[in-house]
Amino acid sequence: MRIVVVGSGYVGLVTGACFAESGVNVTCVDVDSAKIQQLKQGKIPIYEPGLEVMVRVNSEKKRLTFSTDISEGIDGAEVVFIAVGTPPGEDGSADLKHVLNVARDIGRVITKHIVVVTKSTVPVGTAEKIRTAIQSELDKRNAAVSFDMASNPEFLKEGAAIDDFLKPERIVIGTDKEGTKEIMTRLYMPFVLNNHPILFMDIASAEITKYAANAMLATRISFINEIANLCEILGADINNVRKGIGSDSRIGSKFIYPGTGYGGSCFPKDVKAILQTARDNGYELNVIRAVEKANDYQKNVIFNKMNKFFGGDLRNRLIGIWGLSFKPKTDDIREASSLVLIEKLLGAGARVKAYDPAAMEETRKVLGDRIEYSNDPYEAVADTDAVALMTEWSEFHLPDFNRLAGMMKEKVIFDGRNIYDPALLRSLGFIYFGIGRK
Ligand code: NAD
């Protein structure tokens, strides 16, 4: 079986590598020629555990190839996946320009029947827009080539993307054609041997399923953050409350960890996009609107605590930041809470030193030399007035607190992920602030 995956970012590259791993011949395409050049040399432009080996092995076996030209590999391909970015437009709705560029490219090159599958997160109605764009290119060159549309939203998590792709809890496929069902079932069969389902549905339902999933997860995060903030006001401890509610099987324990607000390349933009989709159709999603508002508040929580602690004057304070990526095991800093904190600190006249195991390079691209970058966690806290834990990477969980205490100017820790034991830290002489804890 042969397929093409267009867009070689977090989703496209993982998709391509995992299908190649199952024996499919895959061509990964991207407009970014530097990225394609790197991939051809076996270098991975992103940090994703396990991906580099998988790409290298499948490249060596010639099942995985890379190109900037979509026509390479399309001949004989049964499926072409669109996995390009869908960033938020000015009004918050998903910007489809990359998706429609790919659609036009497909229309320009196909000569045989193909199934065009959107893996990018796209609003309801996008499949029809893609269909129209492809058909208009076919009409321009008087080509009578048939093609079918399908929607196959992706649910992988950065940091665990390979595992999620190889062992998905479910695969959602929107299609109106029996033939497409057959092809997609064949393609995904290796990944559902665990009996997890392929859920076939109409295209509109598949498209909205992805937004509904992300909006639900974002809702849980904002919900627990609000309860945490209330706990703090009332002198309760969110950790006890979290366990108390999470043990109820109707609620469950996942995604109810308080923190500094959700970030990343998906939740913020997908929450915005579903709100805008609803508005465009004359409906206000009140719950989801509140989720976004609560998250905006939460992203400032650590700064507000710091500002209060330092009496509203952060000028010339040196603050260490542990963790820059929006979550552990990724170098993705899009919409990361760390960036909100850093901007606020710099705006208030503080200086910032930061360390992250994977996201330093990405952060440097955004912040340049406005902050200092450290080579290890300890260097990042030397002579600081406070340290803020923003991403719960494993290596931050059990630091040598005595060493920290000896290096910091002031022994103050702002734990944005509640990973430390406040009693232990206080016994070591630290002043500790968490989220929603006594
Ligand atoms: P990304 O920014 O990492 O990668 C997108 C890639 O598409 C880039 O390499 C870019 O150069 C390429 N591209 C843009 N226009 C192109 C074109 N015309 N032809 C070929 N390549 C082109 O994006 P991502 O994080 O992989 O996300 C892709 C889509 O998947 C988005 O819609 C996103 O919402 C969705 N998604 C992302 C995740 C995630 O965790 N990152 C999870 C599920 C779904």
Give a description of the structure.
The protein folds into 3 domains: 2-201, Rossmann fold, CATH 3.40.50.720; 211-297, N-(1-d-carboxylethyl)-l-norvaline Dehydrogenase, domain 2 (Orthogonal Bundle), CATH 1.10.1040; 299-433, 3-Layer(aba) Sandwich (Rossmann fold), CATH 3.40.50.720. Helix content is 43%, strand content 13%. The protein has 17 helices and 14 strands. The protein has helices at 10-21, 33-40, 51-60, 97-109, 126-140, 161-166, 178-188, 203-234, 238-246, 267-280, 286-298, 301-309, 337-347, 360-367, 377-381, 401-407, 422-427, and strands spanning 2-6, 25-29, 64-67, 79-82, 114-118, 147-151, 171-174, 198-201, 318-322, 351-355, 372-373, 386-389, 412-415, 431-433. The strands form 3 sheets. The protein has a 6-stranded parallel sheet, with helices on both faces. Strands 11-10-9-12-13-14 form a 6-stranded parallel sheet. The chain has a two-stranded parallel sheet with strand order 7-8. Helix 14 (360-367) links the parallel strand 10 and strand 11. Helix 8 (203-234) crosses helix 11. The protein is globular. The relative contact order is 0.09. Bound molecules: nicotinamide-adenine-dinucleotide. Nicotinamide-adenine-dinucleotide binds next to helix 1 and helix 4. Residues 6-12, 29-32, 35, 83-86, 98, 101-102, 120-121, 154, 156, 158, 265-266 line the site of nicotinamide-adenine-dinucleotide.
